[in-house]
Amino acid sequence: MIRQWKLLKETEAARYGLTVEQLAERLGVTSRTIRRDLAQLQEAGFPLEQRQRDARRAWSLNREAFKGLMDSGLTLSELCALYFSRALMEFLAGTPFRQDLASAFEKFEQCLTPAQLKYLEDFPKVLAAKAEPRKRAGDHAPSHVGRLTTAALEHRRVSMSYHSFHSRKVKNYVIEPYQVYYAQGGLYVFAVVPAYGEARQFAIERIKTLHMTDERFVPDATVEVARHADSLGVNLGGTPESVTIEFQPEAAPYVAEREYHPSQSLETRDDGCLVLKMRVAVDYALSAWVLSFGPRARVLAPRRLAHAILEQVEDMRANYAQRLPGLATSHAARPQKGLPFTTKAR
Description:
The chain is of the alpha+beta class. The chain is 35% helix and 25% strand. The chain has helices spanning 2-13, 20-27, 31-43, 67-71, 76-84, 86-89, 97-109, 114-121, 141-154, 252-256, 284-291, 303-323, and strands at 18-19, 48-53, 56-61, 156-164, 169-183, 186-193, 198-203, 207-216, 241-247, 265-268, 274-280, 297-301. The strands form three sheets. Strands 7-6-5-4-8 form a five-stranded antiparallel beta sheet. A four-stranded antiparallel beta sheet has the order 10-11-9-12. It starts with a helix and ends in a 23-residue tail after the last helix.
């Protein structure tokens, strides 16, 4: 299906069409495979046509058959890409965007014939995505997102009542919204609070009431909108620091295959250990991430982060020891195979 999607894209882009041999060369398959793909696409309803070109027959896509699609500003290959990635967008199913996402695809579908639609709907079957844990969105979240987005675009102040987990109270705020963003399964608004003279982030799921006022504000050019990018989580504030973490050989390949932050650099030592360096905010999200690797990760710098991790480990042990009388107060380090969160499929 991926190959056939590429074939559609090639024939759509070629002004004078492409021969079977040219398509086979571009896609790295045999001419026989290309002929079979062309036949299947024609059966699915795609208007592929042959034209005489220098004593050869060239294949092209009849764009007139997609006039409605072209009028919408989308090309066929763009629509195919959307369907192909639809499964990846399903992680938003629990957010206020679910209904809007379904509505958008309904509009796309109106531009296609039933046969074409049936073909494209098979794309998500070959690409799946497991949704991350997400917050429960309240009934008012969709309208909150719309109003906050409008307020950010029109530079209008917003008054709201908000459930603060820190104070455990519902508090009233007047905010100047700059950005609405999705992170770690939740929706947030980055805004300046004039009464405090500082920028804060608010979880949209905790907004109780919201009213967009007619009062305008002038965006402050010195306000750094993407401040949450300094954290591995969604936290604001905190000056990025140089962090160095050593991973044991068992964990090294799992760490090396991922990019946790744009600033990271990796170095593999002769003993198989991996040293990761990056500049991030030293906050709860960083500590939780380090602890997720258990004894296979050790903070080398900064020293205060290493002390904080050690204190949490000792508190955890004390917590378990109180409920497990048979747990020894100390034990020798034991060699362990693999990671505690891996499965047999490695």
